[in-house]
Design brief:
Blueprint lengths: L1 E4 L8 H18 L6 E2 L2 E2 L9 E6 L5 E9 L5 H4 L16 E9 L13 H18 L4 E6 L1 H9 L6 E9 L2 E9 L2 H11 L9 H23 L5 H19 L3 H14 L2 H15 L1
Length: 287
């Protein structure tokens, strides 16, 4: 599923952005050997401070498995200010209907090989579809993307071949970099969807994603708290933490959407075992 994060919802999904920055560090810093700045395990550069849009691929547990960054070309962007050598002295591309796509990467450690929904191929194509559809809905007609030769081959294999290139290939870390051009046409989107067997809406509902992430965080917090307690206390600390968390979420809801999200978290956390434990905890509290 695809989540778009921009200046309007970045505060709400700061945890997703942190996971995305960590994935970028592993891919561009460790695997590709690019000259990037990594701090506290996260790869963040000056362009991330310009309120770009991020198209992020998530798996069913809410883990970041793919991501790409979209920047307007009317202001600072990487092809103009970092990879300008690719242009061979030509002026940088600037247009209100042209976006720059950079930092495209996929978590090859978490995903499987093959063509299934949890595969590298599917996640890559879903991110392509999400990027193209989001750009198209935003009035963008073309994308320029700085990629390496491996990604260029991936685009071609996915029936998403660039319609042209800008400048020439230049060395970058362990690989070389080149600038490719893609149109955001219905035909291109249909080709990638057909190649990967992607049907329906790829974009996730923000409230559902937030509920999924909150539920996972609550489970992890309960497990960590239980593990930190002495053995006799471990049976109670998990359910109590979950109960307090769910109660706080429901009480803090100010809208119908927030209440529904809180109830989804509660249903997610209160499986049959947890429900029995919570029932016993509530019974003890009543006496």
């Amino acid at each position: 599923m695809i989540l778009v994060i921009d200046a309007l919802n970045a505060d709400r999904f700061a945890d997703v952005l942190d996971d995305m920055y960590r994935l970028r560090a592993r891919v561009f810093g460790e695997r590709l050997g690019w000259d990037v700045t990594i701090t506290d395990g996260k790869e963040i550069d000056d362009f991330d401070a310009l309120d770009p849009a991020y198209v992020v691929g998530l798996d069913d547990e809410g883990n970041v498995v793919a991501c790409v960054r979209a920047l307007q070309t009317t202001g600072p962007h990487m092809l103009a200010d970092v990879f300008s050598a690719i242009l061979d002295g030509e002026p940088p591309m600037r247009s209100a209907t042209l976006w720059e796509s950079t930092r495209f990467c996929v978590d090859t450690d978490r995903l499987d090989r093959g063509n299934g929904r949890n595969s590298i191929s599917y996640a890559t194509c879903e991110l392509m579809v999400g990027s193209l559809e989001y750009a198209q809905e935003s009035g963008i007609t073309d994308i320029v993307t700085v990629i390496d030769p491996v990604m260029d081959r991936v685009l071609k294999r996915s029936d998403n071949a660039p319609y042209g290139y800008v400048g020439s290939r230049k060395p970058m870390g362990k690989v070389s970099a080149l600038a490719a051009l893609l149109d955001c046409s219905d035909e291109r989107i249909a080709r990638v969807r057909a190649f990967a067997g992607i049907e329906g809406d790829v974009f996730a509902d923000e409230a559902e994603v937030r509920a999924l992430l909150d539920a996972r965080a609550a489970r992890e917090a309960a497990a960590a708290a239980s593990a930190a307690m002495p053995e006799p206390c471990q049976a109670d600390i998990g359910p109590r933490e979950v109960l307090e968390y769910c109660t706080d979420q429901i009480r803090a809801a100010n809208t119908v959407e927030e209440l529904e999200a809180a109830m989804r978290i509660t249903r997610e956390l209160m499986g049959s075992d947890s429900q029995n434990a919570l029932g016993r905890l509530l019974e003890r509290q009543m006496h």
